[in-house]
């Protein structure tokens, strides 16, 4: 309510200085008036201005605080909604779009609150100004009012068009951020496939559309600026013209002219502000609809899961992921007794993960019921790891019980590795667990579940990502009957047949139905499909009946767990990277005391130096025209009155009109010119950022949170696109306006020179003090904003895990705390603005006071026209000075966006994609021979070697399996082949060509990899298989047939144009891996690398894939990192790595006979 009481008093006080100006001109005209009267008027003008300043800033204080509260509320609502939306809703509002709702759309509400009072105070100001003008000029003022009314439809049309452009532009922005978010998530895959160029072009195409809309908006704004700027002048021109034309006796004297001019200047603000308020209203209404659309998304049914006492069951439940998804559990009847171990097996896409999701209540229930007893712990197929310490990831909000914690780390084979981590269990794990291997992530995820001490454990294939010996240890010590979870209810999705004999119940799924169910022995006796499957894949049934516990213990004595040496290197590297990045950010946030001039110079160059100079020149011309028009008016008012009339009225009016229209034209031209320059700068800076990020080495992405990079592409690019150009326009306008004022006052009352230096000194001191404070507060706000989006991104990714552990409320509290931390940075910023406003307006009020005072002192030598000119200019200067310092500080704060974008546009890049003078032949490699010569590699400078003096030769066409404890350097070896990691010493030769001598794309496009983590991008299946459009539909269908996906894709109405959702979430992990196989089949290069590619696939499909690889890549060199040793037992040779060196390298038969490391691993897997 305070806001509504403050605003009317502000509006009324606006008109007091104009009345004082009228009295002052009368005083100067009347030479006999006592001097004290003049001093009193000057004092009243000063006192009234000070009171107005204090009320105004109290009003602003309330308004801005309300704005940030509103933004915090909207952010909280969006966060809470994101935790409860269904899977189908997630696909329609992707992560990038929701982040935009938080960052851009919520901010629009804050902007609106600042102007909301203008909706009624602007019309009130217009009415009062017209009333006082009527008092001054009589009915002639109606001509001006008529013009204002005529301008309203024009402004309305511009606002409507702006809104349409706004909607279009937000669509482009959402698409760009969404695609960029996916690129950052899958950047490693892009590099391995050499797809950066294709995805760059997609981003550039979206950006081109976005810039075209921005250009239209900028030109529309230039026309709008012309109408806003010209409106008050045209109104005053028409009013004066009508006034002097209707009656020769109407004399335009100084009092009438300059009081009217001051009133017209008051009119300028509401006339300018109203369209701006309407524009902000239209933008906010667009944002409101977008937020409403998101908040109206379907939510998970709170009743989807029935908590009850008794057994854990899914009874006659028909469950579906969404209406068009075909592979889903249908009409399931399932009862799980308390304390039992249930194994769920079946081929890829049969609904295993869907069943787990159904039991969590994550799926849409069409009929039936799902009931569970007790609390639930969930280990997803793709582990979700928080950006927190290892300990925090395991505890997951539970209180610390040191004894139990140590026991669980030991059971999950994590304990022995803590001492090799830089900070033990306090080592920070990067965003999405980027600095852990797949197996490491999975085991931390499992430790979290075990520590939760829940009643029911849903384990979605947790053993697929770990080596066979580690899988055996985890099953024995955690999941199996003798493990930590013995006696708990466990539902285990698995492809590992060696553990099935210990399950109480095995459920075999096929096409979303239970095809068989029973104990292990019962299923073998049934002689069904399951028994046939077992006989094919397990040559010796005895492996199921006995447990070689001695071997398990002996092996685990030497197991370094999934951490090992490679993990140590990686953790050391990435841990340091994180800390280093953090410190760099701190330094830039707190120690850099001012933005370097080089940043302004860089932006000026991006705009174009010619354009920058032209804009300044046009503003100078506009100021000259404005001063000329007012001096002309002053001269006109001093013209002697002969026989009750003034002569040369038509000439006076014509010149005055010409000078005024000239001002408008110059303003419009400068707006147009700056619009062109601003778009040019936006294009250049974004292209440089995108190009650099596409060329950045992989370790940059491993050590930099994606939220931080995404912030550059969203918030910072938004500032460069839409905030900096209008800020510059406003700054130039206020600067030239203030300069004109000082020139006019000093030429009218030269005595003013005496106070100009002290006032300028005070002004500059206030400006510098404020700018330094404001800049650091802005940076603090920016630094505290990124964690909100990073945490939100993390939450959306792990929403199902958070819900399973019933930690939604905790995560809401964490999000609220991060928003509060951001608010703590925003609030001092608001207070510093009020501090500035009061002091700057005090300087402006002093200018008014001294202009009036010196007019009183020198009234004997001054004519009324000059006094009117001087004081009317002085009355404008407060606003100009205030906005000038604000715009200067805003520009300095916002130019930080250019600094941040440049910082990420100039980071170290990897080797060139193509080296023109050193390109391999088109048919290279024609043999596929790979040779490592004394090869060593480290993750980064200053870290230990990961691979040491590797020397080996793989002949063309050989099939080589690569095995070793996790951390031995297996994945590093494949990364070196693609030059994701560059050599510390030595070289790799492919067909005799040193790979370091050719371009990265020439190398990577000639090799093929099926990576461990299958990455898909939102878009058609066709685009995911072939983003460059190189292959025909026939070739794609053939690849799908060979990769066992033909049936699934053929069943989809869209076929190859089947839409994959973000991250390929509407396909199972196994199906995503098959898509990666189809990509490899399309490329069909001479060298194929499989990086644990079939870990997430059932044994039957794995067998099909291995058969496909053997037939389709018969003459090719195949390098396979294998968890399942049975897939490489028929390979030519097996390479065993240990601590970055070659431990064994021979045929599988010879290695088993040698009874070394490989023999031990084969024995664990039941193959020796």
UniProtKB/TrEMBL annotation:
| Record-annotated membrane-spanning stretches | 37-56, 112-134, 140-158, 226-246, 606-633, 653-676, 742-766, 842-860
The ABC transporter domain is annotated at 314-536, 930-1164
Q: What is its main location?
A: membrane
What's one Pfam family here? ABC_membrane
Instruction: Write down the SUPFAM superfamilies for this protein, in alphabetical order.
Output: ABC transporter transmembrane region, P-loop containing nucleoside triphosphate hydrolases
Entry keyword annotation includes Nucleotide-binding: yes
Query: One GO cellular component from the entry?
Result: plasma membrane
Q: Where is the secretion signal located?
A: 1-21
Gene Ontology molecular function terms on file: ABC-type xenobiotic transporter activity; ATP binding; ATP hydrolysis activity
Q: Which residue intervals define the domain ABC transmembrane type-1 in the entry? A: 27-283, 613-893
Q: Which domain of life is it from?
A: Eukaryota
Q: Which GO terms describe its biological process?
A: lipid transport
Compartment annotation: Membrane
InterPro entries registered for this protein in UniProt: AAA+_ATPase, ABC1_TM_dom, ABC1_TM_sf, ABC_transporter-like_ATP-bd, ABC_transporter-like_CS, ABC_transporter_C-like, P-loop_NTPase
Q: Keywords in alphabetical order, please.
A: ATP-binding, Membrane, Nucleotide-binding, Signal, Transmembrane, Transmembrane helix, Transport
Q: What is this protein called?
A: ATP binding cassette subfamily C member 3
Protein source organism: Vombatus ursinus
């Amino acid at each position: 309510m305070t806001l509504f009481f403050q605003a009317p008093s502000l509006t009324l006080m606006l008109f007091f200085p104009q009345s004082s100006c009228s009295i002052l001109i009368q005083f100067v005209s009347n030479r006999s008036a006592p001097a004290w009267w003049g001093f009193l008027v000057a004092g009243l003008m000063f006192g009234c201005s000070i009171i107005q300043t204090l009320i105004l800033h109290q009003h602003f204080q309330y308004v801005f605080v309300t704005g940030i509260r509103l933004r915090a509320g909207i952010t909280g609502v969006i966060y809470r909604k994101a935790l409860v939306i269904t899977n189908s809703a997630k696909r329609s509002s992707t992560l990038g779009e929701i982040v935009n709702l938080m960052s851009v759309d919520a901010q629009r509400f804050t902007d609106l609150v600042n102007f909301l009072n203008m909706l009624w105070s602007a019309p009130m100001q217009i009415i009062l100004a017209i009333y006082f003008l009527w008092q001054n000029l009589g009915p002639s003022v109606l001509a001006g009012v008529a013009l204002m009314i005529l301008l309203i439809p024009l402004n309305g049309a511009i606002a409507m068009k702006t809104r349409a452009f706004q909607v279009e532009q937000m669509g482009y922005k959402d698409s760009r951020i969404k695609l960029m978010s996916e690129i950052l998530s899958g950047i490693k895959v892009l590099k391995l496939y050499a797809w950066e160029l294709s995805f760059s072009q997609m981003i550039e195409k979206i950006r081109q559309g976005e810039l075209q809309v921005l250009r239209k908006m900028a030109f529309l704004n230039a026309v709008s600026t012309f109408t806003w700027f010209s409106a008050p002048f045209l109104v005053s021109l028409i009013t004066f013209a009508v006034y002097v034309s209707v009656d020769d006796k109407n004399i335009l004297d100084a009092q009438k002219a300059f009081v009217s001019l001051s009133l017209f200047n008051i009119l300028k603000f509401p006339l300018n502000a109203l369209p701006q308020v309407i524009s902000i209203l239209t933008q906010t209404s667009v944002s409101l609809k977008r937020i409403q659309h998101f908040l109206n998304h379907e939510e998970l049914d709170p009743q989807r899961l029935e908590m009850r006492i008794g057994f854990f069951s899914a009874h006659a439940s028909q469950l579906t992921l969404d209406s068009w998804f075909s592979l889903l559990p249908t009409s399931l009847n399932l009862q799980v007794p308390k304390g039992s171990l249930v194994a769920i097996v079946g081929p890829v896409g049969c609904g295993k993960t869907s069943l787990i999701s159904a039991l969590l209540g994550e799926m849409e229930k069409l009929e039936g019921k799902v009931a569970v007893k007790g609390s639930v712990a969930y280990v997803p197929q793709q582990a979700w790891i928080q950006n927190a310490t290892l300990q925090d990831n395991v505890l997951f909000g539970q209180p610390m019980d040191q004894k139990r914690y140590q026991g669980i780390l030991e059971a999950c084979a994590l304990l022995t590795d803590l001492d090799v981590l830089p900070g033990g269990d306090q080592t920070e794990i990067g965003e999405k667990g980027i600095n852990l291997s797949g197996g490491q992530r999975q085991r931390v995820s499992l430790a979290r579940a075990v520590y939760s001490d829940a009643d029911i454990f849903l384990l979605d294939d947790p053993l697929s990502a770990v080596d066979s010996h580690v899988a055996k240890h985890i099953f024995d010590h955690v999941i199996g009957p003798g493990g930590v979870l013995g006696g708990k209810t466990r539902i285990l999705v698995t492809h590992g047949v060696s553990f099935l004999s210990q399950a109480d119940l095995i459920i075999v799924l096929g096409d979303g139905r239970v095809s068989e169910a029973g104990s292990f022995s019962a299923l073998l006796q049934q002689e069904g499909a399951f028994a046939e499957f077992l006989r094919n894949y397990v040559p010796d049934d005895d492996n199921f009946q006995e447990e070689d516990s001695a071997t398990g213990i002996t092996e685990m004595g030497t197991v370094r767990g999934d951490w090992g040496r490679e993990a140590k290197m990686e953790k050391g590297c990435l841990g340091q990277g994180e800390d280093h990045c953090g410190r760099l950010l701190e330094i830039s946030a707190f120690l850099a005391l001012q933005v370097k001039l080089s940043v302004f110079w860089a932006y000026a160059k991006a705009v174009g130096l010619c354009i920058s100079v032209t804009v300044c020149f046009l503003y100078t011309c506009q100021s000259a025209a404005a001063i000329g028009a007012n001096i002309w008016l002053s001269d006109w008012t001093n013209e002697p009155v002969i026989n009750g009339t003034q002569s040369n009225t038509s000439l006076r009016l014509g010149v005055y009109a010409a000078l005024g229209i000239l001002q408008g034209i110059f303003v419009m031209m400068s707006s147009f010119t700056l619009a062109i320059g601003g778009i040019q700068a936006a294009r250049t800076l974004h292209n440089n950022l995108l190009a650099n990020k596409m060329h950045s080495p992989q370790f940059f992405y491993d050590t930099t949170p994606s939220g931080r990079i995404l912030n550059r592409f969203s918030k910072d690019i938004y500032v460069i696109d839409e905030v900096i150009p209008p800020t510059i326009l406003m700054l130039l306008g206020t600067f030239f306006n203030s300069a004109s004022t000082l020139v006019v006052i000093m030429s009218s009352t030269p005595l003013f020179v005496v106070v100009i230096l002290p006032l300028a000194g005070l002004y500059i001191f206030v400006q510098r003090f404020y700018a330094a404070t404001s800049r650091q507060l802005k940076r603090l706000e920016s630094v505290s904003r990124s964690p909100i989006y990073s945490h939100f991104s993390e939450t959306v990714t792990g929403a199902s895990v958070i819900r399973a552990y019933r930690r939604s409320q905790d995560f809401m509290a964490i999000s609220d705390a991060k928003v509060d931390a951001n608010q703590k940075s925003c609030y001092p910023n608001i207070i510093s603005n009020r501090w500035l406003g009061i002091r700057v307006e005090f300087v402006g009020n002093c200018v008014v006071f001294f202009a009036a005072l010196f007019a009183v002192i020198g009234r004997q030598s001054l004519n009324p026209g000059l006094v009117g000119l001087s004081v009317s200019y002085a009355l404008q200067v407060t606003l100009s000075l205030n906005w000038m310092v604000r715009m200067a500080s805003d520009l300095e704060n916002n130019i930080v966006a250019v600094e941040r974008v440049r910082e990420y546009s100039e980071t170290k890049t990897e080797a060139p994609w193509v080296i023109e003078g050193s390109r391999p032949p088109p048919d290279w490699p024609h043999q596929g021979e790979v040779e490592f010569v004394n090869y060593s590699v480290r993750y980064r400078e200053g870290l230990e070697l990961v691979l040491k003096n590797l020397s080996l030769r793989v002949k063309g066409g050989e099939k080589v399996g690569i095995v070793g404890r996790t951390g031995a350097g297996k994945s590093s070896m494949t990364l070196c082949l693609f030059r994701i990691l560059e050599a510390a010493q030595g070289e790799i030769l492919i067909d005799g060509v040193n790979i370091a001598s050719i371009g990265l794309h020439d190398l990577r496009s000639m090799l093929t990899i099926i990576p461990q983590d299958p990455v898909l991008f939102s878009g058609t299946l066709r685009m995911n298989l072939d983003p460059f459009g190189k292959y025909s539909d026939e070739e794609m269908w053939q690849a799908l047939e060979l990769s066992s996906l033909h049936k699934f894709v053929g069943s989809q109405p869209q076929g190859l144009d089947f839409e994959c959702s973000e991250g390929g979430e509407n396909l199972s992990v196994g199906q995503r891996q098959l898509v990666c196989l189809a990509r490899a089949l399309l490329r069909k290069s001479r060298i194929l690398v499989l990086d644990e590619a079939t870990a997430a696939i059932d044994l039957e499909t794995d067998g099909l894939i291995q058969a496909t690889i053997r037939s389709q890549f018969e003459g090719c060199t195949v390098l396979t990192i294998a968890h399942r040793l049975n897939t490489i037992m028929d390979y030519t040779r097996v390479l065993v790595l240990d601590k970055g060196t070659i431990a064994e390298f021979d045929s599988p038969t010879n290695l088993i006979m040698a009874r070394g490391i490989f023999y031990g691993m084969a024995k664990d897997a039941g193959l020796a």
